[in-house]
Write a structure and sequence with these properties.
22 strands; 19% strand; 2-enoyl-CoA Hydratase, Chain A, domain 1; 15 helices; alpha+beta; Pdz3 Domain
C-alpha cells in the first residue's frame, strides 16, 4: 500500500507537498530543462550517446501521463533522467519551499538504516526501537520481495555519479537509506524484511512503517536540562572543527589532518599554520583524511597540493564551456549575472568552437618553498572523495612517498564537469537541477572508462569493524606507520 506524504490540512498561503501540478505545466518544465541541458551542459553526451539521451528525454517526457506532486515529478521523472547523464555535478533538488516545509519534520519512512556495500546490507540503526530482531549488524538479504542486488541496482538508477563510479552511491545509501527508499519506492504500512539469523539461516519478518506523531516537529522532550548555550566564538570554533582538524599522534610521530571540504573553513590559514607546525616539530608522517571531502574551490585544492607535491603539476589538460553565456535561459539560472560575467571574461573561443578556461590548461604549479612537507603522506579516500578532492588525488598519485589508501573515489579520474555550477529553477514546480558550465579533463591522461581515482592500497568495508565500531582504514594506516617506524628504529640500531 502506498501512502502520501504530508497532510492536506494547510492554510491558503503555506506550502502543501500534496499539491499536484497539471500535466501541461510539468511538460513545460521538462521541455525547458531539456533545452537548457542540450544547449549549455558541457558533457551531456560524455558517457551517454546523443541517440541514447534523446531516447531518455522522450521516455521521461512521455512518462508524464497525469498531474503530479513536486515530489513525484522530482523523483519519478527528473532523478532518473539526470542519472542517465552520468555527471555527478548534475543532480536535482526539491524546491526551496519544500525544503523549508520539511525542515525539522520527522517524515514517515522505512525504519532501517543500513550500511550498503557490494551486494551486502547490514543494519546500523532501527527507528523502531522496540524491535528485538533487526539489531545493529543484522545482515539483510531483501526487502518486499526484492533481493539486495535488485534493490541496489534499482536505487542507483535514481542517483547521479561521475561515469560509472558508483562508490559514492553506496555511501549515500549508507548515510540515509530510509530517505532514498521512501522517495524511490514510496511508503508501506508494513515491510517484509528478509535477514540472516545468528545461525546464518535466512528468515523474514514484517516490520511496521516508522510513523511519528502527526504533530511532531522533530523536537523530542528532554529528560535532562539543556546544556548551556554556546557563545558565538564557541559555535564558530566547533563549525571549523567539523570542517577541518589537526590531531597529533606523538607515539608514531604522525599528524592526522581531516579535511571535509575545499569550499570553506579559512583553509589558507589552516594550511599555513598546520604545515608550519609540522615543519617546526619535525613530524615525518602525515595522514590526510579526505573521505568526506566532496570538493569545493579548485584553487584551495591546488594550494594543498603545493604543500605536499614532489614535482610540478597542472590541474587540467583541457577546461571549457560550450557557450559564451546562459542566454536565452538566464532568468531560470541562479547567479545569472556573475555566471554570465565569468563565461564572458574567463573564456576564449578556440578553433574547436569551444570556450576554453585557459588558466587551468596553461599554468604549471610548483611545490611550496616554505613549510613544504617532504615526509611520508598517506591519503585516505572513498566514494565521497569528489570533484576538487579528486583533482588533488590525481595530482599527487604515483609520487614518491605518497600513498593513496581506501576505496575508489567518487570523483571521475579522467575528468569531471564543474568549476561553475549554478542551479536551474524550473518555473512551475520550482524543482532545481544543478548545471555545470565547464568540462575539465584532468592532467595526466588516464582511460575514459568511467572510474574514479583508484587507491594504491585497497581497503574495503569491514563487517567486523562495523560491529565493533572502529575505523578499519585508519587503523590499517596507523599500523603501517608503526611498523615502518619500528623497522627504521631497528635499522638504526
Amino acid at each position: 500500500m502506498i501512502l502520501a506524504l504530508g497532510s492536506c490540512s494547510v492554510s491558503r498561503n503555506s506550502y502543501s507537498p500534496t499539491k499536484k501540478y497539471p500535466k501541461q505545466q510539468l511538460q513545460q518544465d521538462f521541455t525547458l530543462l531539456r533545452n537548457i541541458l542540450e544547449k549549455k551542459h558541457p558533457s551531456l553526451y560524455w558517457y551517454t550517446s546523443k541517440d541514447s539521451m534523446d531516447m531518455y528525454f522522450d521516455r521521461y517526457y512521455n512518462a508524464i501521463q497525469d498531474s503530479m506532486t513536486e515530489q513525484q515529478f522530482g523523483w519519478k521523472i527528473i532523478a532518473p533522467l539526470t542519472d542517465k547523464i552520468h555527471c555527478g555535478h548534475t543532480s536535482f533538488g526539491m524546491s526551496k519551499a519544500y525544503n523549508k516545509w520539511v525542515d525539522n519534520k520527522i517524515i514517515p519512512s522505512f525504519p532501517l538504516f543500513l550500511k550498503v556495500w557490494n551486494d551486502t546490507m547490514a543494519v546500523t540503526a532501527n527507528l523502531n526501537r522496540k524491535d528485538s530482531v533487526l539489531k545493529r549488524g543484522t545482515l539483510i538479504t531483501g526487502i518486499n520481495g526484492l533481493s539486495n542486488t535488485r534493490l541496489i541496482d534499482t536505487m542507483f538508477t535514481y542517483m547521479t555519479e561521475d561515469g560509472q563510479a558508483n562508490n559514492v552511491n553506496y555511501l549515500r545509501l549508507s548515510n540515509n537509506f530510509p530517505y532514498y527508499h521512501r522517495n524511490i519506492f514510496g511508503l508501506s504500512r508494513k515491510y517484509t524484511v528478509h535477514y540472516l539469523d545468528s545461525s546464518n539461516i535466512e528468515r523474514s519478518v514484517q516490520v511496521p512503517l516508522f510513523d511519528p506523531p502527526r504533530d511532531s516537529t522533530g523536537h523530542r522532550p528532554r529528560t535532562n536540562p539543556p546544556p548551556p548555550p554556546l557563545t558565538r566564538h564557541e559555535r564558530k570554533q566547533r563549525q571549523l572543527q567539523n570542517i577541518r582538524s589537526l590531531a597529533i599522534d606523538t607515539t608514531n610521530n604522525t599528524a592526522i589532518i581531516t579535511l571535509n571540504t575545499f569550499a570553506t573553513g579559512k583553509l589558507r590559514t589552516f594550511f599555513r599554520q598546520t604545515f608550519r607546525y609540522i615543519k617546526r616539530t619535525g613530524i615525518s608522517n602525515v595522514v590526510l583524511d579526505i573521505r568526506s571531502n566532496g570538493g569545493g574551490k579548485i584553487n584551495l585544492s591546488t594550494l594543498l597540493t603545493k604543500y605536499v607535491t614532489r614535482r610540478p603539476f597542472k590541474v587540467a589538460d583541457s577546461s571549457y564551456a560550450v557557450a559564451k553565456s546562459l542566454a536565452p535561459y538566464s532568468r531560470y539560472i541562479k547567479g545569472r549575472f556573475l555566471n554570465n560575467l565569468g563565461l564572458f571574461f574567463l573564456t576564449k573561443k578556440r578553433k574547436d568552437g569551444l570556450y576554453h578556461f585557459g588558466m587551468w590548461e596553461r599554468k604549471t604549479y610548483e611545490a611550496k618553498r616554505h613549510n613544504h612537507f617532504n615526509g611520508d603522506l598517506y591519503v585516505l579516500i572513498n566514494g565521497q572523495t569528489f570533484s576538487a578532492s579528486a583533482l588533488f588525488c590525481n595530482a599527487v598519485k604515483g609520487q614518491q612517498g605518497i600513498t593513496i589508501i581506501g576505496e575508489e573515489a567518487g570523483g571521475g579520474w579522467y575528468g569531471n564537469s564543474g568549476i561553475m555550477i549554478p542551479d536551474i529553477t524550473l518555473p512551475n514546480t520550482h524543482v532545481r537541477v544543478r548545471l555545470p558550465l565547464f568540462r575539465l579533463v584532468q592532467y595526466h591522461h588516464v582511460p575514459k572508462d568511467g572510474h574514479g581515482v583508484m587507491p594504491d592500497i585497497y581497503i574495503g568495508t569491514s563487517y567486523e569493524a562495523l560491529l565493533k565500531g572502529y575505523d578499519k582504514k585508519m587503523q590499517v594506516v596507523m599500523d603501517m606507520i608503526h611498523e615502518r617506524n619500528e623497522a627504521q628504529y631497528r635499522y638504526k640500531r
